[in-house]
Amino acid sequence: MRSIDIHAHVTPQSYISAMKGGQVWHGVQPEPLDIEPQLEWTPEQRIKDMDSLGVDVQVASTGAQFYYYGGDAQAVAAMHRECNDEVHQMTIDHPERFRGLAQIPMQDVDLAIAELDRCVNQLGMVGAMIDDKVNGKTFDEPEFLPLWKAAEQMGAVFLIHQGGGTLVRPRTRSYHLPNTIGNLVDRAVTFASFVMGGVMDACPDLKICLAHGGGYACYGVGRMDRSWDVGRLPQIPQPPSAYLSRFYYDCLTHSESALRMLIDMAGIDKVVFGTDWPFDMQIDWPVSWVLGLESLTQDEKEAILWKNMEKLLGITSD
Amino acid sequence: MRSIDIHAHISPEGYIRALEQGEDWYGITAGANWFHESIPRTTWTPEQRLTDMDSLGVDVHVLSTNAIFYLYDQDATRVAAMDRECNDYVSQLTRDHPDRFAGLAALPMQDVAASATELERAMTQLGLKGAMIDDSVNGKTYDAPEFYPLWEVAEQTGAVILIHQGMQTVVGDRINRYHLPNTIGNLVERAITYSSFVFGGVMDKYPGLRICLSHGGGYTCFGAGRMDRGWQVRSEARVNINKPPSTYLNRFWYDCLTHSEPGLRMLIDSVGIDKVLFGTDWPFDMQIDWPVSWVLGLESLTQEEKEAILYKNLENLLGI
Amino acid sequence: MRSIDIHAHIAPAAASHLPEGQTWHGFTRQEMKGRQFLVQGDKRQWLHPAYSLTADERIAYMDSVNVDVHVLTTWVGMYNYDLPGDVGAGIARECNDYVADLTRSHPERFAGMATLPMQDVNAAVAELERSVNELGLKGAQIADHVNNKTLDHEDFLPFWSAAEQLGAMIFFHQEGDDTIVKPRDTKGWAIDNSIGNLSDRVVTFATLVFGGVLDRFPDLKVCLAHGGGFTCFGAGRMDRGWQVRSEARELGANIPSTYLNKVYYDCLTHSEAVLRYMIDSVGIDRIFLGSDYPYDMGIDEPTEWVNSLESLSQDEKEAILWKNLERVLGV
Q1: What's the total number of domains in chain A?
Q2: CA distances from C150 to B25, B215, C238 (A)
């Protein structure tokens, strides 16, 4: 039994050493390092932990704190190149254990396309992780269409993962709700942006994976369908629920019944293994969690743990 | 809500530095290196540990040096020196972070006199709260009279003795697969240790002795009925004690590391709520992942019981 | 078979029939693009045409969709929490007298919920007491926040205490399109409603649970409109947050999902799979019929829809259609 984790984060070692040494890093002023201790681990220590967890492959993504979409595009592009080179090195040193998702400077679509192209076509990375929004813009904006088209051609996968504040934050900052509710709201809005903005129609081969099980997208699609029924979404030919199976979702629901519903609505071939390593909101023992789910068949568990990811990423097992 | 963890391990800084630099440290072998390299959290700095404690909601770790440093089968002088360094290190951490750390000593149990001396030093000079020791010492159990001097010092100084297996348990000889030497072995060891103290008359001889059995005392409370039956029907079981072994259940303390709510409930009902302590086994995979919220979320415990376990009992026991 | 609908809006005649040129609590009536609005300063509240129906016309509609009882709530244009407290209190009194009159003149067809000036908690408590004790209303409808203050704020403790003592049900319903999703609804795709309503409702559940309100007032009757929004589906991640973050455990004593069966929900999910999921999560005794009359985002044929659901047993359908509300509200 294999397992491939699409939702696992990295902090660049170059950033860590700069902060510890009190040096500026791509415009980031020195600040006290405030990251999970696991993020300081070497790739070898990380592999020990993956062994303990039973995770064979991490598709590693530089953490969301490095989006910096509000920063100067050229400077952030340089930062992202360094992030991506580090992740690339992990995949070179341990090709059996790591794959990579790129950071791309979304504030400049041309630069984003160039970096995605470098990462996918030269460095062999599988795609990119991006935020739910770019400086207030959602992904239905026509300016992003060239990126989706380019990604479609490259076969790149986008992992959608919030950064900074979610939509819940203006209402309440208490009780960790900006994360526990906010991530899931943001993901539903992103689903809606891609679908209602016609991106999924314009790019039939675009591969989007919505982190955190797609948030509330599948559970809330009935009400989106209702707004289509009553004529509020004339721009798309089908109700939003018809697009559920166009996306991929990680299994990070923290609920068996929610995961079961996701599988039933999106299709078992669309749900992939994702753990959010090493944050406290991760699944603690993710492989055994999936294996222990009573409402899933063995085939479904294998599809989630590795088979779907192998297909999606073109990884072949021995 | 506070929380104090009696079952949290640490490795001495001196060893970690030697490991990183590829140097020898008191003759510690490759076995210890493998242990630390396999479990990256064992090499975390105190600051990284504090970050993790904050995340877990744990206020205080009662630090005990990892069991891999027991080394009861090695040269007593060398191990005694090593233990002194371990204990100095833990003591320093409790001084650097008095609100976050308390400590238990490591003892060279192959030399009872040296152990008694080191325990006394730990209690009177280092400000530690007791010691952590194995379930047995080179095949000897704690009913052996040679250990009396140690119990005497422990009783006099008010030390808490945390019982915790070493790297092997009795189960390993029978079956060394499926992690059973740990998942069953630890619990068997603890029941044997309980009976050694009780049937050996140690608890009667040292009424002030304070023993904490980790892993919820293993199978002790569940199996006490059969020990009572043995005491009833066999004269050799009554050599040292005049009352059934189960009557000693409330003489011991236990951590809450049962991985089972019914298991913990039974423990509380058997030994009394004032004897159950918060213990997590940080930083190992067999720990409780989110121990504070695990305790708080238990439906069969009252709020008072949860507070007793999380901090009140340990505040009383250790004077924290 | 009976049917009782917890989610059915109305406007007081004084507002819906406000003559041109006259003012009502500072509002005037204006027509824009063929629609009628109540206008005051920047506020512009759409008066749905159904609000001009007479009681008999409304009952004729109810008969046509096999609904026996509407538990009337005023439309959210009556919240006005941003206006001065005395203005809000005046609007609320008029709304509540109007709704109470209808319940008295048609006791078999109407029950009612109060409108409250939540910007003034003392006035809200007084009006809730009057509405329940003197007017015979069953509780009140309030928004998910009051001028961006969520209902776990300590200011509202007297309100929750009064609601618990009075046995009043508090029905949560967002104010118009002012949901947390609004900032990203830039294209007019109505996701401020289709996603936003559901998001606001789960925030409300969470603030009541994590904020300790449901612990402090264990007999409180809370009903979350729109099937509680994302509450049931999102409970796993709330549980995880409670597990791993001390700030999440500060006030709420227990695992969030254990509170799912402490509140009530309407069935307005637009999805059989979601309603089934809710029933399995919260228990069948917690779910009421709710149609959102007269809006297009409501259920067109509410009783027919419930009766058509293949995954529900007959007992479950009856519980939703009337038995639960009859038991809980004494309708």
Answers
A1: 1
A2: 59, 43, 17
Average pLDDT along chain C: 96
The amino acid at B266: M
Q: What is the pLDDT of residues C67-112, one digit of tens each?
A: 999 999 999 999 999 999 999 999 999 999 999 999 999 999 999 9
Interface pTM, i.e. ipTM: 0.91
Which of A34, A254, A280, A287 to mutate to probe the B interface, most B CBs <10 Å?
A280
Is position A318 within any domain?
Answer: no
A233 contacts C297? CB cut-off 8 A? no
Phi, psi of B24, deg, nearest 5: -80, 150
Instruction: List all residues of chain C from 268 to 287 with a beta carbon under 8 Å from chain A.
Output: 269-271, 273-274, 277, 280-281
Q: What is the bridge-based pairing of β-strands C149-150 and C145-146?
A: antiparallel
Of B55, B299, B303, the CB nearest to C244: B55
Entry pTM: 0.92
CATH number at residue A61: 3.20.20.140
Q: Is A298 on the interface with C (CB under 8 A)?
A: no
Selected for mutation to probe chain C from B50, B296, B300 (highest C CB count within 10 Å) is B296
Domain for residue A299, yes or no?
yes
| Crossing angle between the packed helical segments B148-157 and B112-124, to the nearest 10 degrees | 10
- Label residues C227-247 b or e (16+ Cβ within 10 Å = b): bbbbbbbbbbbbbbbbbbbbe
Residue A167 is assigned to a structural domain of this protein:
yes
DSSP string, C287-324: EEB---BT-TTS-SSHHHHHHH-TTS-HHHHHIIIIIH
Range of the domain at A104: 4-313
Sign of CA dihedral C264, C267, C270, C273: positive
